[in-house]
Input
Amino acid sequence: MLRLPLIKGSTIHLIDLDNILFITSDRNKIEVQTFNASYRPLMYLKDYLQYLRPNFEQIDKSTLVQITKAAAYDPVRRTLEVEHEGIRKTSYVSRSRSKKIEQLLPRKE
Output
């Protein structure tokens, strides 16, 4: 399994790519979210992209999601649920990305 070096506090952690759910950027701050913690990358996001493809999809201007963790997509609310070990988290999908996500994922029942 591929592990990425990420920072939490002042400590470097090697995180399995499979444990990453979302990657978000807000201005100059990039956050890598797992189910139990948030991390900062050591490199620029563009440097990580080679390791993230094809498992990650962009769901809005500033968010990448690990599509293999996606459980369901609600096209009315444009929300995407990701699941890991029985725990679910939700994120919004932009209008421009919604068609692609809808093609990739089952609808929420």
Summary: The chain has a mean pLDDT of 87.
